[in-house]
Amino acid sequence: MTRYVLRRLAIGILTLVFASAVVFFVMEILPGDPARLMLGLNATEDAISALRQQMGLDQPVFVRYLAWIGGLLVGDFGRSYTYSVPVLELVTERAAVSLPLAFLSLILLTVIAIPVGLFAAARRGRAADAIVMGLSQMGVAIPNFWFALLLVYFFAVWLRWVPSGGFPGWQSGLWPGVKALIMPAVALALPQAAILARVTRGALIDVLGEDYIRTARAKGLPRNQVLWRHALRNALIPVLTILGLQFAFLIAGTIIIENVFYLPGLGRLIFQAITQRDLIVVESVVMLLVASVILVNLVVDLSYAIVDPRLRGAR
Amino acid sequence: MALLEIENLGLTIAGRPILRDIDLTVEPGEILGVVGESGSGKSLTALSVMQLLPHLSATSGSVRFDGAELLGASERAMCQLRGDDIGMVFQEPMTALNPVKTIGEQIAEGIRWHARVRAREALARTASIMQRVGLPPADFPLSRFPHELSGGQRQRVGIAIACAMHPRLLIADEPTTALDVTIQAQILDLLRSLVRETGMALVLITHDLGVVADMADRIAVMREGIVVEEGSTLDVLAHSRHAYTQQLAEASAHVPVRHTPPVLTRDAQARSAKPLLSVRDLVCTYPRSHRYPFDRPEPFQAVRGVSFDVYSGQTMALVGESGCGKSTLSRAILGLHRPAGGTLSFDGVDIAGGDHEQITAARREMQIVFQDPYGSFNPRHRVARLVAEPLHLRPELSSDEKRRRVEEALDAVGLMRADMHKYPHEFSGGQRQRLAIARALVIRPKLIIADEPVSALDVSIRAQILDLLSELRDRLHIACLFVTHDLSVVRAFADEVLVMRAGRFVEHGPVEAVFEQPENAYTRQLLGAAPDLHRTLARLGEDRAT
Amino acid sequence: MSDMSVTSAPSGTASFLRRALRNRSFMVGLVITLFVAAIALLSFVWTPYDITQLPVSERMKPPSATHWFGTDHFGRDILSMIMIGARNSIAVALVAVGIGMGIGVPLGTIAAARGGWLDETVMRFNDIIFAFPALLSAIMITAIFGPGAVNAIVAIGIFNIPVFARVARAGALALWPREFVMAARVAGKGAARITVEHILPNIVSLLLVQGTIQFALGILAEAGLSYVGLGAQPPMPSWGRMLFDAQTRMIVAPYLALFPGLAIVITVLGLNLLGDGLRDLLDPRLNRER
Fold this sequence. Notes:
The structure holds three protein chains of three kinds.
Chain A: H1 2-29, H2 34-39, H3 45-55, H4 61-73, H5 87-122, H6 127-141, H7 144-158, H8 174-208, H9 211-218, H10 223-261, H11 266-275, H12 279-307, H13 309-313
Helix pairs in contact in A: 1-12, 5-6, 5-8, 5-10, 6-8, 7-8, 7-10, 8-10, 9-10, 10-11, 10-12, 11-12
Chain B: E1 4-13, E2 16-26, E3 31-36, H1 42-50, E4 57-65, E5 68-69, H2 75-81, E6 86-89, H3 103-115, H4 119-132, H5 151-163, E7 169-173, H6 181-198, E8 201-206, H7 209-215, E9 218-223, E10 226-232, H8 233-238, H9 243-252, H10 265-270, E11 277-286, E12 300-310, E13 315-319, H11 326-333, E14 341-346, E15 349-350, H12 356-363, E16 366-369, H13 383-388, H14 399-412, H15 429-441, E17 447-451, H16 459-476, E18 479-484, H17 487-493, E19 496-501, E20 504-510, H18 511-516, H19 521-529, H20 533-545
Parallel strand pairs in B: 3-8, 3-9, 6-7, 7-8, 13-18, 13-19, 16-17, 17-18
Antiparallel strand pairs in B: 1-2, 1-4, 4-5, 9-10, 11-12, 11-14, 14-15, 19-20
Helix pairs in contact in B: 3-4, 3-5, 4-5, 5-6, 6-19, 7-20, 9-16, 14-15, 15-16
Chain C: H1 13-22, H2 24-45, H3 78-114, H4 116-130, H5 134-145, H6 149-175, H7 179-186, H8 191-227, H9 239-247, H10 255-282
Helix pairs in contact in C: 2-3, 2-10, 3-4, 3-6, 3-8, 3-10, 4-6, 5-6, 6-8, 7-8, 8-9, 8-10, 9-10
C-alpha cells in the first residue's frame, strides 16, 4: 500500500515538474523575447527593456525557471502587465468561480452517470436499456457550449425562469452563487455524463461475465444483489480511470462555458489576457489548470488502491 | 425417491440443440461422476440444475430436486435453493473468487443471506467451515484477499462457499483440472470426506477418467449432448458395453508404439557419444520488484543450477508442478530468456554466450511446439505463411524450395496440402496441434522442445498427437525435450525423465526405473497423487471379488 | 483489455460484408459519415450561394424556400456556410488523428516491444501530455503565435498522441506473451519484424475503432476551439465560429444557433455509431454467445 502510494506521489510530482517545464518553455523560451511580443510592434525600446527587467529576462534561462517555480510555490505569480496587479490576486478572484464550477459539474456528472449506467446494465437488452443508451449516444455527440446555448434559450429566453448569465459574486451569499453556476454545471456535466454512463454500463456488463459473478449467483444471491455487492466495486476501476480523464475535459469546458454564461472566471481572464498579450497571466492560469488536472489524476490513482486490494501489495 | 432426478432433459441455446434426453439420478450420499470430452455438454447439464444457464437458453423435460421441479421454478425459489440445498464449485479457482472482497466476506455472505443470522454468528460459522476445508482461521485470517492465496487454497475457499450451508447436493465442475496433481489429490480427499461426513450427494464433473474411477460410485459418460452410458463405476469402465466409453478408456491409457529402442543416457555415455544439447549449472533469474527506492533485492531464482544432456534421438521428459521452473528452463534453451549463469551448448556450440550468429545457427536445429493450439498461431496469417515462419532462419532457400518444405511438413503431420490456403481458425484443436508440429518440422530440426503439447487436448485427440510425435521421432530421429506436468504422458512417451522441483532436479533416470522405484520422496508423492485408471480398476475389481 | 479483443479471426470479405450489412449502428454511422464527407467535397465545386458575397438586403432572413437554413448578419446563406464549415471540421479532425496515430502508434508499440526504462519514459511522457487538454495547448500556442486553424490541428493532434500510444501499447503488451509471438522469436525474428508482421496487424482493429472515436472528439474539440476564437478565423466559416456569432443574436434569430449545432451533433453521432459498429464487427467476443 505505502509503496504504491509513494510511487504514485512521486510520479505525480515528476509529471508536475515536467509539465511546468513545458509551460515555461512554450511561454518564455519559444517566443524569443516575450517582452517584445507582449508590447507589440509599436513599443519603444525603453518600454521593452523596462519590461525585460521586470520579467527578469536578462537572467539565464535556468535561473528564470527556478525563480518562476519558486515564486509559484510561495504564491508569487508575478505581476500582470495589463492590470498592473499581482497575478495571484486576479487568479484567486477568478478561480473562485471556475473551480467551484468544475467541481460542481464533477459531482453532477458522477451522481448522474453511475446510477444511469447501473440501471442500464441491470436491464441489459430490454427497452429501458435501449432508450437510455440511445439518449446517451446523443448526449455524447452534443458539444457542451451548444447545449449551454440551448439551455439559455429555453430557460432564460423562452421560459424566463433564470437570468441568461452573469455571476452575483460569492459576497452576495452561497445560494445565489451556486444558483448562477447550476445551469453552466448542467451544460458541462450532461454530455460528459453520457460518456461515463456508457463506460459504467460497459464495465458492469464486462464484470457480469466474470467467473466470480457465477460463484455469487451459485451462492443464491439474486441478480440485483450480485450487481450491487460484487459487480459495482470491480467495475469502478475503469470508471475511475475515465472520470480522471473527464476532469481535464471539464476544466477545459469551464473555460469555454464561461463565455456562454458571461461568468467572470479563469476562462474570461485567459481570453482577455490572450488578446492583450499578457503572457504572465496566460502562463499562470495554464499552470494552475494543468496542476489541478494532475492533482485530480493523482487522487484517482490513489483511490485505485482503496478499490482494488491487489494494488496494495504490489507496485 | 432420489435426491436429484433428471428426466428427459433437453437444452437449446439460441435455437441450437445442446443437450438431448438426459436421464440421471443421484441418491443422497452418492458420488456420481459425469465424464466427457469438451463439448459433451457435461457443464451445461450442471448449470441446468442450478438454472444458471447462459442467455437465450431454453430447457425441456424435468429436473426434480427432492421431488420439487426446478425447470421453470421461480427465480426466488431458485435463489433459496442455490447455496443452501445445492452448492456448486467451479473449475477456475483463480477467477471464481471476487478479487476485491476478503475470503471471509465471500464465505459469510451466503450464510447471512440464507440463514439470516447476525454478522457475529455468520463469522463464527465462516470460521468453522474454513477450519473444515483445511484453512484454519489461525493461519488464514478471514481478512485475506483471494490474490494472497495459492490455487489450491482458493479452491478450498470455493468449496467452503459451496458447503457453508451444508448442502444436500454439491455439484463440482472440473474442480481440480486447473490444479497440480498433489493439490488435486488433497482437494479430492476433502470432497470425499465431506460426502462421507455429511451424507450429501456429489456430482463430480470431469474429463479425467482416472479421477472419476477413484471417486465415483456411479458414472455417466456424455458425448455430444447425450448420456451414452451410465452405471456403476466398475461396470462402466471395466466391462463397458459402449464403444465410445471403451475408446475413451483406451485413449486415456494410450501408449504409442515405439519402433526404435529408447535412447538412454548411460548407453550413450558408454558409446561416448556427444550430447546434442548439453546444459551445465544453468541459473535463470527474474528480477524482484523493489520494496523501496534504491532497494536492490536479490533476483528470484527460477532455475537454480541444473545440468543435463539430451542425446540425438532421445526423448527426455521434464516433469514438475506449476512454478517449478520447467518453462523458464525450456525458454532459456530456446534463447527466449537470457540465463544468469551456467552454460548451454548445442551440438558443441555455446549458445548462452550471446554470439548472435551461433545462436541463429543453433536455432535452425531447434524448434518448439506449444501447449495451446489456439494461441500459437497469428490468426491473420494463412497456413502456408504460418508453417513457413521458421524458414526465416534459412534466407538462402528459394520460395519454391520453401513451398516444397511446407508441403513436406504438412504431409508429415497428416494434413492436406490444400490446407495451405486456410486460416488457423478453420482447424480443430487437434489439427492445429498438427500444424504446430508441422511448423516445428519445416526447418528439419534435430531437437524439438514440446511445452505441454497435449495438455489442452481431449484424451482421444491426445492419443493421436502422441502417436504422431512418436512416429516422427522414430522416422526422423528427432530428439525431444518433453515438458509436462502429466505423468501418464511421460510414461507413455519418454525415454528418460527429469523431475524438477523449486528450480532443481530431484530425480533423473530412465522412465521405467523412475516409475517403478522412485528414489526421491517428492517423486513418490507425485506418482502417488496421480490418478491412475488401471490401478483403481484393479482395486475396484478386487473389492467386488471379495 | 482481454487479449481476445485484440485479435479476431479473419473471415472472408463476403461474410464480413454480410455481417456489416446486418449491423445497424455500423450502417447508420457509415451512411451519415459518407453523407457529411460528400457534403464537404460537394462544397468545393458547388454551394447554394456564394458566401464571399455579403448581400445587405438578405441579412438575418429566417429559414425559407430560398434560404433553407436562413441567413446570417452579413446576409450569407447558412446552408452554404455549414457545407464549407464541414470541410474545416473534417480536415482539422482528420489531420489531428493522423498526427496522433503517426506518432502515438510507433511510441506505443516500441514501448511494448522494448519495455524497461523506454516503456517507463513513454508512459511518463503520456502522463505529461494528458495534463494538457487540447484547449490549454491551443491557448498557449495562440498566445504566442496568434490565432489560426493550424493551432487547433496541432493542439488536438498533440493530445491524440498519448491516446494512441496507450491503445497501441496495451494491445501490443497483450500480444507479446502470446505463443505465436514466441514462435516467431524462436524462428529468429527480431522485435521490429515481429511488430510489423504479428503485432500491428492484430491491433489494427483497435486502432481503427479508437481512430473513429478520436475523429469524433476532434470535431467536438475543433468546434469548441473555433467557438472561443482559437480555431479557424473569419472569413473562413466554421461551425464553432457560427455558434459564437449566433449567441449574441439568439433572442431574435435562434435558428442561427440551431443548424450549425445540429451539423456538429449529426457528424459526431455518425462517427460514434460507426465506431461502435466497427467494434462490434471486429471484436470476436461479441460474435459468441455470452
